[in-house]
Design goal:
globular; binds fe (iii) ion; DNA polymerase, domain 1; 8-stranded mixed beta sheet; binds adenosine monophosphate; 285 residues; 15% strand; alpha/beta; TIM Barrel; 10 helices; binds zinc ion
Amino acid sequence: MRIDLHTHTTRSDGTESPAALVRLARRAGLDVVAITDHDTTAGWEEAAAAADDAGIELVRGMELSTRHGGRSVHLLAYLTDPADAELLAETERVVAGRRDRVPALLAKLTAAGVELTADDIERATPPGAVTGRPHIADALVARGVVTSRDAAFATILGPNGPGFVRRYATPLVEAIGLVARAGGVSVLAHPWARSSREVLDRETLARLRDAGLTGVEVDHQDHDSDVRRELRALADQLGLVVTGSSDWHGAGKADHELGCNTTDPEQYARLKECARAAAAAAGQG
Ligand code: AMP
Ligand code: ZN
Ligand code: FE
Ligand code: FE
């Protein structure tokens, strides 16, 4: 059984629709695929219908924007109630923060001598998508300023670039609680990638587990083999579920093909069991 628990579609910064994700996942030989767009459940319905047709199991998820120790931390949330008012209000706050950073970002680009307009960004953003820096990167590519998303992040949009603007993200511990109260389970996305490793040490992971964290994504392209070995051992000691996934963005991210990393079926079963318990505790039976 091949299981990929982290992908993005045109509902955030991926380049394929939710239905296309499901079809491509089937073609890639996957039995289970999760849709985890940034801060939104907007793709769930379309993906679920396509999954029924394709005969593949869909896991409904999101990748939440959170903050811990001053660093950006991505938290995968699975199987939450999409109508949960508290979680919905919080993701709306995050999405508003994404939208509101655009004018400030454009002003910084102008000051740095980079010509880009709100119209350019709108043209590069699929209708209804949660806006993200990759769309701004695409707009910069369309303008001929850079040649790829990677180049845009390396020279302009990264944390040290002239176009970087901080935005609101949910405090991590608060996000873990929100997910649990919405009947779902949370898994830290690529926790030891460069941006977040320093603030997610052993003691912190133990504390997050006690706060309700279910798992950590170990097999991810941003983790080399040494990091994976070390993190897997730590997860085992702490009793955290271990996942693996592609973090697929379609054509938007090189070297993240569907199924390039997968989750062990036993670990996936544990994740689902924890979700059943969370849903029962949240009164969803
Ligand atoms: P944002 O969440 O809008 O601040 O943008 C961060 C997102 O950009 C991440 O979630 C990644 O999906 C994407 N990203 C980060 N670095 C790169 C890169 N070098 N190339 C393409 N996408 C990237
Ligand atoms: Zn993304
Ligand atoms: Fe991420
Ligand atoms: Fe992601």
